[in-house]
Write a sequence for this structure.
């Protein structure tokens, strides 16, 4: 096993074991190795189901399985338990592999799929039938469920339980051959319908599913269930210690029964540990799917999601997650973990590794009256504080007009406010002392829009030669040199500490935090970050830890995500929203306090709207004739503004499906940031843009750039395309140089692709699209890449 980026990990674990004692799993493994069980070998596995993205609870399991294997000089496999053709997809397989590698672990050549064992699993099922331990049941599954009994009442035998072995073998073979419809028969284990453990009451082993599997295609129409598949897959791989969470504790008896009755050579040991339950979030895959499907979040990689992809996009490092997994340890009893432990690990990790820069989130203009108008200077500013053993500095431009934080000025300061105010002197970080001498207000609103100051040239560097002291130090940026950026302030997704524990009749989504995302579009950051690649992490001084968004940030449109605040401010936030004790669910309809600039579209609310759901807008057209899906119709009818844009767009573009695709995805995403009615985009503009895409005039990536401008400024899509030179390029000869440059820039990825990691094709396509500003024809690019990589 290879653990990347964690030198000395074994020594760290040994040190922990000596000081704190072995956890119960490592104690078991230690005893097994000492006694020569399994020949003294240790082989674990991480067995995800590819029906969604991994979350931080999976990260705990990954660290445990790979960690135990490494500490005992063993190995850890990755195996996809992919036996449900209805929910699984190759994109999840690729995402899961990326997440495991990103966390710092590698399985070398030990990547397995349960679907590769279908033939062997079928043979094991035949063995059970031949031994009288399994039978084909022709009851409907709801009848089987009803006859299973309860905790206090025994189950009832199926009327088909005593079929002969020959009849069961014949029916099972015909099930495999596809003679029967879904639900006509199932294969059940023959155990005991009066068993105290209800899972042992003749559990179902195989179902008929006439569905294409993402790997095996239509080769199979019967699929094994988890409890039959998992233990036999462990055995086939020679797993010694099968580590799983506590919800599978009752399954252990069935795990052992299947292995005993099939008489396999290798009998792994199942050991259960407490799963991770993290405050202010949900880790149920069903609920995470609902968050994505109901558009409470942008997707699986939304930085508010507890997915590894979301945490990565938010700026969390793999080292912080591994540290968190080590901190919470391994227990036998379920409990909830305070999210502050995770935030502590993130801060502690970032504190010593990221540079400090200055960014003004909510700018207020400051004019230094006695600083020359045509002058600017470069001030030296260190990247790291003295307690961080790293060196490096950057030049920060200083000029007559600056921006400071709006919250750093008060015209009538309250007691204890030590920042800038009329007549007060403060220090500008790395620069000079400045004193407020005047303010300029908006004549209509009375709001302060400009502060005038004088500076003391003798205080350069932040100290006064005469020894006078100031109490406030402010960060700032030069107005002439600062870069405009969007800042996304992410916070906890739920107001209540335990969103899984809600009152009967209420939904967990009712407790979403409406300020889990605040978007600031007019922020200013110092120019030193201009050339940094997406994903670069920083500490914005006095603000928190941030990273440039790996998906949305670009040189001409910087986007920064807040990873975590400098200190825990959650108590104040929660009190503001609920007015209740920390950790309690808010009252339905409770006031939410003053609204920040923008809010995300969660908890049923969008900017400027109440939390009540908007009235539905019945579409004045025959939606069936348009060929729209029920989901698209539901989305279009959910908001009158969205419905209006859709119907107007159809006057310009007759392709209803294409228009619905853009409206129900791109426009709905924007509507979660601000109401559709406030957007300058028109239905005619949407229809025109869709027509350009459908005609091949412009690629979809480039069209998204045009769409982004339409929602900000409106306009004619075709004029924007011509002005910015965004016409789609389909000439292979013209695109070949961009393809070559991308491949030359990523030789390691090229090697991985050629060694079999073909899922990287999308990575290369994406980079070529970035290289060509979204103008390349993706289909042509794909073919060029395949030729170049072959």
């Amino acid at each position: 096993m290879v653990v990347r980026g964690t030198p000395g990990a074994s020594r760290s674990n040994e040190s922990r074991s000596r000081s704190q004692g072995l956890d119960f799993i490592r104690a078991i493994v230690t005893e097994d190795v000492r006694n020569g069980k399994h020949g003294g070998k240790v082989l674990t596995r991480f067995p995800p189901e590819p029906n969604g993205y991994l979350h931080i609870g999976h990260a705990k399991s990954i660290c445990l399985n790979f960690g135990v294997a490494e500490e005992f000089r063993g190995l850890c496999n990755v195996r996809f338990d992919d036996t449900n053709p209805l929910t699984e997809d190759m994109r999840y397989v690729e995402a899961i592999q990326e997440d495991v590698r990103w966390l710092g672990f590698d399985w070398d050549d030990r990547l397995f799929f349960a679907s590769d064992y279908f033939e062997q699993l079928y043979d094991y099922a035949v063995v059970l039938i031949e031994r009288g331990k399994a039978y084909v049941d022709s009851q409907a599954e709801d009848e089987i469920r009803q006859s299973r009994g309860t905790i206090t009442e025994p189950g009832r035998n199926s009327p088909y339980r005593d079929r002969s072995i020959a009849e069961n073998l014949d029916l099972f073979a015909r099930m495999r051959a596809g003679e029967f419809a879904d639900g006509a028969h199932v294969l059940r284990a023959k155990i005991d319908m009066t068993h105290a453990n209800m899972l042992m009451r003749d559990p179902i082993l195989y179902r008929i599913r006439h569905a294409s599997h993402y790997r095996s295609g239509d080769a199979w129409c019967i699929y094994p269930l988890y409890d039959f598949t998992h233990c036999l897959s462990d055995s086939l791989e020679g797993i010694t210690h099968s580590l799983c969470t506590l919800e599978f504790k009752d399954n252990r008896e069935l795990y052992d029964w299947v292995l005993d009755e099939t008489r396999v050579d290798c009998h792994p040991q199942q050991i259960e540990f407490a799963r991770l339950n993290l405050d202010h979030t949900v880790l149920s895959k069903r609920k995470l799917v609902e968050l994505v499907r109901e558009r409470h979040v942008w997707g699986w990689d939304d930085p508010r999601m507890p997915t590894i992809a979301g945490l990565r996009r938010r700026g969390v490092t793999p080292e912080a997650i591994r540290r968190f997994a080590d901190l919470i340890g391994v227990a036998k009893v379920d409990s909830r973990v305070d999210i502050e432990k995770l935030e502590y690990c993130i801060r502690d990790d970032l504190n010593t590794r990221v540079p400090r820069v200055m960014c003004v989130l909510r700018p207020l203009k400051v004019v230094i009256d006695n600083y020359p108008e045509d002058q600017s200077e470069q001030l030296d500013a260190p990247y790291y504080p003295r307690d961080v053993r790293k060196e490096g500095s950057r030049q920060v431009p200083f000029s007559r007009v600056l921006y400071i934080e709006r919250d750093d000025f008060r015209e009538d300061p309250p007691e204890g406010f030590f920042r800038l105010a009329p007549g007060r002197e403060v220090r500008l970080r790395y620069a000079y002392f400045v004193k407020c001498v005047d303010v300029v207000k908006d004549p209509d609103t009375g709001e302060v829009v400009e502060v005038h100051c004088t500076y003391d040239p003798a205080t350069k560097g932040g100290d006064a030669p005469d020894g006078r002291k100031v109490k406030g130090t402010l960060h700032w940026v030069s107005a002439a040199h600062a870069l405009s950026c969007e800042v996304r302030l992410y916070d906890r997704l739920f107001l209540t500490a335990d969103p899984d524990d809600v009152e009967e009749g209420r939904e967990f989504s009712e407790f979403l935090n409406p300020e889990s995302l605040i978007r600031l579009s007019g922020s200013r950051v110092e120019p030193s970050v201009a050339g940094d690649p997406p994903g670069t992490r920083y500490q914005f001084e006095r603000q928190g830890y941030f990273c440039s968004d790996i998906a949305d940030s670009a040189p001409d449109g910087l986007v920064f995500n807040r990873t975590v605040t400098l200190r825990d401010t959650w108590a104040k936030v929660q009190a503001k929203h609920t007015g209740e004790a920390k950790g309690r669910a808010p009252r339905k309809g409770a006031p939410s306090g003053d609204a920040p600039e923008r809010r995300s579209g969660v908890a049923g609310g969008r900017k400027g709207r109440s939390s009540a759901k908007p009235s539905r807008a019945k579409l004045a057209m025959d939606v069936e004739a348009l060929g729209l899906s029920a989901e698209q119709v539901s989305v279009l009818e959910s908001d009158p503004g969205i419905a209006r844009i859709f119907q107007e767009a159809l006057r310009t573009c007759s392709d209803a499906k294409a228009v619905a695709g853009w409206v129900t995805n791109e426009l709905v995403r924007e509507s979660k940031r601000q109401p559709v009615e406030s957007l300058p985009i028109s239905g005619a503009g949407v229809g025109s843009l869709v027509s350009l895409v459908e005609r091949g005039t412009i690629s979809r990536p480039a069209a998204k750039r045009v769409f982004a401008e339409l929602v900000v400024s409106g306009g004619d899509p075709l004029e924007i395309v011509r002005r910015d030179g965004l016409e789609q390029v389909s000439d292979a000869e013209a695109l070949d140089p961009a393809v070559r440059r991308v491949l030359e820039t990523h030789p390691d990825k090229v090697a991985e692709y050629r060694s079999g990691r073909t899922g990287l094709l999308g990575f290369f396509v994406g980079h070529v699209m970035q290289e060509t500003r979204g103008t390349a024809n993706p289909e042509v690019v794909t073919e060029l890449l395949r030729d170049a990589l072959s």
